[in-house]
């Protein structure tokens, strides 16, 4: 039997984060349900960085809210079908760093559980979503810099056009993960057992 893809299950309880995978529902730019499950996974190296980011955010009195992590190839194809714009959506023929399990979309949440104002919703495909867009008020710039600081300290790099997107440096050195093999692994043993079997 081939080895299952090497990903770790991220949960609110184990990682002290909030998780709201936007593509598991209709509240995303496509207006469609893209995922058939609300489960969050990352490559072990990205998961280790996430733990550092969680601690850094805590230092600001904030929490991380994860909006997307590992993205199956089929999901990438569905997003591309709606918005084939390579400035914001990776061409599925080339592969997304989300499909490598080393990219994560996220924001910061205050002690009251409300997400900080970042100026635009996630997946806004316009200059307003660019990290250092000058048109936003100072409070938005500060919030974006807080997120940037947290993630850079944890070893991630940012996407210049997407304030919410971070990934491991040299992300394209990681292999694309065959989502069919991964989902077969999940369905065979349940996601908790599968996640345990993928631990380092």
Write up what this structure looks like.
This protein has six helices and seven strands; from the N terminus they run βαββαβαβαββαα. It is α+β, with helices and mostly antiparallel strands and 200 residues long. Strands 2-4-5-7-6 form a five-stranded mixed sheet. It has a two-stranded antiparallel sheet with strand order 1-3. Strand 6 and strand 7 form a beta hairpin. The C terminus is likely disordered.
Which sheet architecture does the biggest sheet show? 5 strands, mixed
Name the structural class.
Answer: alpha+beta
**Total strands:** 7
Strand numbers in spatial order across the main sheet: 2-4-5-7-6
Helix percentage range: 25-40%
- Distance between the amino and carboxyl termini: 19 Å
> Helical stretch count?
6
Report the β-strand fraction as a percent range. Answer: 15-25%
Low-confidence segments, given as residue ranges, are 187-200
Radius of gyration (Å):
16 Å
Sequence of secondary-structure elements: EHEEHEHEHEEHH
Mean pLDDT score, rounded? 87
What would you call the shape?
A: globular
């Amino acid at each position: 039997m081939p080895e299952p893809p090497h990903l770790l299950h991220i949960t609110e309880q184990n990682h002290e984060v909030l998780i709201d995978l936007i593509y598991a529902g209709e509240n995303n730019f496509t207006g469609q349900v893209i995922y058939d499950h609300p489960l969050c996974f990352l490559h072990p190296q990205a998961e280790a960085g996430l733990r550092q980011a969680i601690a850094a955010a805590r230092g600001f009195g904030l929490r991380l809210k994860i909006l997307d992590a590992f993205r199956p190839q089929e999901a990438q194809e569905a997003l591309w079908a709606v918005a084939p714009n390579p400035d914001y959506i990776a061409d599925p023929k080339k592969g997304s760093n989300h499909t490598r399990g080393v990219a994560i979309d996220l924001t910061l949440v205050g002690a009251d559980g409300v997400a900080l104002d970042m100026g635009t919703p996630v997946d806004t495909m316009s200059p307003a979503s660019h990290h250092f867009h000058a048109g936003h008020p100072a409070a938005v710039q500060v919030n974006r810099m807080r997120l940037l600081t947290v993630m850079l300290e944890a070893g991630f790099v940012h996407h210049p056009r997407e304030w919410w997107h971070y990934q491991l440096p040299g992300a394209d050195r990681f292999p694309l993960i065959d989502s069919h093999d991964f989902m077969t692994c999940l369905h065979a043993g349940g996601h908790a057992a599968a996640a345990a079997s993928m631990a380092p």
